[in-house]
Automatic annotation (TrEMBL), chains A, B, C, D:
Key word Transferase present: yes
Protein name: Diaminobutyrate--2-oxoglutarate transaminase
CDD domains per the UniProt record, alphabetical: OAT_like (cd00610)
Pathway entry: Amine and polyamine biosynthesis; ectoine biosynthesis; L-ectoine from L-aspartate 4-semialdehyde: step 1/3
Transmembrane segments: none
Gene of this entry: ectB
Family: Belongs to the class-III pyridoxal-phosphate-dependent aminotransferase family.
Length: 428, 428, 428, 428
């Protein structure tokens, strides 16, 4: 089997760009995946606690989604139609309207942007600037919104920002909920900045945020803080944008991460798990009164991925037609929180996040990396998050079975014990 | 049938963003497509001379690509794996290396960017700035490189630029080949600008161009001019980037639009027809010496679309393992050029473009729109291009049969006659 | 006398731009001034509590400075010599070195920028970017650094920022000392931002601030806070720039506003009272290790105003050869603080500022404007400051006699009583 | 006398910034100047063919201007009054209106900006953006408009641009008259760019230019070309700005460099010789319909330099009350042109420029530097201009006597002979 392992390595080393990243943490060649399990070319099974960074909320190759796609392709369904009307798009819109918008009494237009989260964010920021006639945007510490130039300006991560190799403009930074510790309400700071005409923080076109910062360290904002921020946006004439790319599609329980919080964002960006099966798809939801785009003003070849429409519509119908899935996620999230709290308590660490977007701050990036490495050696794929990659982050498929979840958490618990025990030993 | 027509309209009108564009030219709901034919939900067949703006060079649902995809999905092949190593990615890289790079004696690293052309361009510009430590980029009049903020700065189209609603920075504009008429060699103007330290045109990180400007009016640069531009880039320490997103993948005959021209771009961006079946996929090809990315410095959820790898590898093997396809395209291109020349001559118009990326300048956007509308009424899907949308552009699948191509051109010829005849009549 | 009043008004109305501002508050034509008194063309005397916004710290037409200038001009001293060596420049440098730098054990190079404060700030920011290779600059809420595009980006005032009519770039905003109330140490917030690689606040080339914000509302930073900010700059590799344009030249007691605070800024900008007599002059003081300018890299026609060198050297010798002047200023400042505290206490208001750069927050811009108007009616020229122009600001010449100062304060006290009494009456 | 020479050198070396430039070409300490003669501290006289880069068009210390200034200062005239109404300002406006505007049937508002040319340009660009709601500005190859960030973006010189150490934005570059050789009308190229909505050159707020490029190599635009550019500005809704800072105030004959050309710029910037005596003063002339500034929207401490108003008004009356001075300048310019043509012909070189802003392209910066050095050794102060500092530029005071001008030109002629003769010898 050695040969097989070597050959692929050689190809990747020879031809793939050095920018590749996850393949460094998980140096295996994978070929097949079902549910929460992913297999390498040698047939070894891994439990997937990464799930495409929340792109596979319904697991790998869900049988119903898969069947719908095969059926569509077999029948010569349109794969690519630019942004023309297709039956597949219509069915997706019908499902999205029925299962998502109507039940929440939400009224939004759906913009099909290029099929990346960054593209949805670019569209959102452009539109907010167009609507308000302003150029500044407020984004938050540790926020992640993508790496194309417009979205990257809103992203906090220094490595990604540095990748631009040119100054990033158009964004003023504000502190996320809790960023300056529990005694400072950062929403009040922002309100102070925006209500002072000489603060030097220009009136914004938009305030953009994630309700839980997936890449930024699983910081979860409180509903109260989010409502204050929305009110600040309204008061100062800015659009309120929720970037629900990582936290949406059930990851925190509801379809939207802000379900039930009494929020009414002007724009919502979605991608990742929207297609349900990991296919590229991104949308920007717009309140109709803001939908002042001229035709094709924001365009792109792959806006509207018909294969993704098929799987997305199937996923909406399967998981969001009633409350069962949400309750299942909440139940798992509760179990997950209990297990992680125990781990955290054991090692005097802190649990972070919300719903099934939760993790443990290991105290340092080195530790977190060792823990993830130890997990991988035991067949568990798991990654880190945070300014210093210090948070071990669990992003299991929401559909994972209780047993597989529990078993994965056992591996994780052992890894914490092993690494932090060792570190304690080394320190003594 | 009225009911069916009305219902979808209602859904789209109610829920889809006003930014939609092609559905305005072709107000039908399509559901199925094979080869060069696309069907609406009433079963009416249309010949597709748009081909996803050159995304469907091998036609809709090529049987071999489709079979490979169904096979992969049926076997629970990984749909989404972030940028981890997968068997599908490896096979794509092996095929790309074998059929494309090696036979051309090209040595490039393949960066899987987010699956949009704009994302590939963003990566290219970021890397060029990183490599050179400069920030300025030279882009050309009428160039189109995408609408995310970094790429949009390089795009010439005023409507798209205006969509940013904020100034676009980091790009100096230069005139494309022939832009100032036949007597002025615009490469000489650029050389003058860059060799004068007080011209005010800052030394660029990169010069980026399309060899044929697909959106900009089918302007085709001469090989001599392209070689001069490459030499200018070299002389002034800039990277030479060819954006082959629309013109690549056989559209002009060779796999690369610059095949056989003696060019050696530092970076090449590709997307559109790369997956072969219209699935979202984009790559940036980098000369290895420029591949100084840090891991994940440019990242994204959907970089590396495994379904697209499957169809792309199949397409490479099917169409690029030998010269047959290229010769077939060249033969069709020759026929096409003859037919269009006849139309142009008849109406005293001008043929533009190269290979199967060719069209007729109808003299005004209004005329071109009428012609396209007349074609659509006769079952031919065709679109315009150019600063004033004045060029009727033929982007038929390269695999279209001679008969279907001829029949489509008959429709087009009639439409020119009808519209220009009518206009003459109206003028008289 | 009516004729005289009308004619000038007519000229100004006819020919001067609508951008004029102070002439709106003080609609008289002035022609002569001595010490703290300024006369209009009808011979009416006004006490000047504005002093050219701290440009006339030594009063109008100080007899010694005036004599030196007349002497120089009479002897055909060079008025303009670009930045060539002149005797006048040499004498200024000798005096500056002797009376200012040496006695403080400071080692700085003097850069003669264009003779405006904004130009000195532009030079400072350019150099900081050149030295560090970074582009971001930290500036503070309510800071004022000028209105040319580079300096304006650092200025907080919304009206001035809006005047650019284009986005201002290159500056991240931080909160000044006390900006978020007494319980929040804003230096800690900045430290948090800069020590988090994912905060989204890029590592700065410089941190620029005023020790007292002259235009921003007479906010005075504490020495402890200033030292923390300097330490933060050092820790994060940024240059520490003090903009001493309004607070310098004795306004707060010492020649530099930061004298005796244990600070060692990398760059200091000076202008306003530097020439001593109101003549245009600005300098940027640079630590020698940062003086990496290429010859003429920052240039300008009027850098080095020789008439101003003459009066500046005379002023340095007259006022800064020993401690007498400083003590005189401190004594007046103490008297001033007492009088303003009494006014503030009477009306339940707050005193703001430091040294002879002090005022009373009248609670609203309308009130402050009425108070200033009432003063002017009684022959006192005084202006406002602050985000809402709510602070009545005393910037009397430092050389004002005790009697004239006291008499001016009597007028001011009456004006507060009249306006706030009236407002109380109106409210009752 | 050695001591005197050494001491100053030491002071300058110790305390003045390395950015100093002209003192490198003329390493003497000067102390006195009259007319076209400047004296160093040893009493050695130099003829001044630099004249403060056209700041001393009326020579050093003109007796009438000097007398007016001494008179004003002696009478305690206001030196600094912010932008309040003063008698001095009024007299200047009256004179400017009478001698300059009315006789030309021009109707402009005068904005007193900070007293640097750069500040006047910053004001002009800000206002053009405010008036048009656009942000792009067209500036030309080899243009020089100052080095503060907004003006610097419009400046072509690479060394100055590099000094920003951050990307310069908001300006698109166009080619100046003749830039691409005699066969290409660059106005036509600009018209092509601006009339194509997809050129990628955004519709500009303004087109800014010098009629003769003083720093850029004495390139003189033809009246026809200037009229075409003005027409282009009008046609595309842009303001037409003439930067007359170096070429104005009689340098090319008329008070404005564009006198008699049939031009009607929307904005004119002036500085340098405006005060008549080398004192800092700058204005921006605005057509009244564009004067939409809010009060103080563009402000600054030294806007309105009263000493400069005195000398400026005296200069306007002395030199511009009738046509005598203009005729005198034209006569000298004609003599000058003849002498330089002879020199150029002798060495097969090219004369550049217009009026008394004229020079000889020496073929290389090295040669030009040697020529200037040789002149200085013979008591003639003269400098270079151009992309490569290749043009030896004569900017003598316009008031220079025929004899002194002739003698200076003799020195210059000898220097050309010596340097170019030597070079020929060296080459042989």
């Amino acid at each position: 089997m050695t040969t097989t392992t070597i050959t692929p390595k050689t190809t990747f080393d020879r031809v793939e760009s050095r920018v590749r990243s996850y393949s460094r943490s998980f140096p295996r060649v994978f070929d097949r995946a079902v549910g929460a399990t992913i297999y390498d070319v040698h047939g070894k099974a891994y439990t997937d606690f990464l799930a495409g960074c929340s792109t596979l909320n319904y697991g790998h190759n869900d049988p119903d989604l898969k069947a719908a796609l095969i059926d569509y392709v077999s029948g010569d369904g349109i794969a690519h139609g630019l942004d023309m009307f297709t039956d597949a798009k219509q069915n997706f819109l019908v499902a999205f309207e029925r299962y998502i918008l109507k039940s929440r009494d939400m009224n939004y237009h759906v913009q099909f942007t290029g099929p990346t989260g960054a593209n949805a964010v670019e569209a959102a920021l452009k539109l907010a600037r167009k609507v308000t006639g302003r150029t500044n945007v407020i984004a938050f510490t540790n926020g992640f919104h993508g790496v194309t130039l417009g979205a990257l300006a809103a992203t906090g991560n220094g490595k990604h920002r540095g990748g631009a190799s040119t100054p990033l403009t158009g964004v003023s930074r504000a502190a996320y909920d809790g960023y300056y510790g529990p005694d400072i309400d950062t929403a009040d700071l922002l309100e102070r900045d925006l209500s002072d005409p000489s603060s030097g923080v220009d009136k914004p076109a938009a305030i953009i945020l994630e309700t839980v910062q997936g890449e930024g360290g699983l910081n979860a904002a409180s509903p109260e803080w989010l409502r204050k921020i929305e009110a600040i946006a309204r008061r100062h004439g800015a659009l309120f944008i929720i970037d629900d790319i990582q936290a949406g599609c059930g990851r925190t329980g509801g379809f939207f991460s802000f379900d039930g919080m009494g929020l009414s964002p002007d724009i919502v960006t979605m991608a990742k798990s929207l297609s349900g099966m990991g296919l590229p798809l991104a949308v920007t939801l717009l309140k109709p009164e803001h939908d002042i785009w001229k035709p094709a003003e924001h365009n792109g070849t792959f806006r509207g991925n018909n294969h993704a429409f098929i799987t997305a519509a199937a996923a909406l119908e399967k998981f969001w037609a009633d409350h069962a899935f949400r309750q299942e996620v909440e139940s798992k999230a509760s179990y997950l929180a209990g297990r992680l709290s125990a781990i955290a308590e054991q090692h005097d660490l802190k649990v972070k996040g919300r719903g099934m977007m939760i993790g443990v701050d290991a105290g340092s990036g080195e530790r977190a990396a060792e823990i993830c490495k130890a997990c991988f050696a035991k067949g568990l794929i798991i990654e880190t998050s945070g300014s210093f990659d210090e948070v071990v982050k669990i992003l299991a498929p929401l559909t994972i079975s209780h047993n597989q979840l529990a078993a994965g958490l056992d591996v994780l618990e052992d890894a914490f014990d092993a690494v932090l025990g060792m570190q304690r030993a080394a320190a003594e």
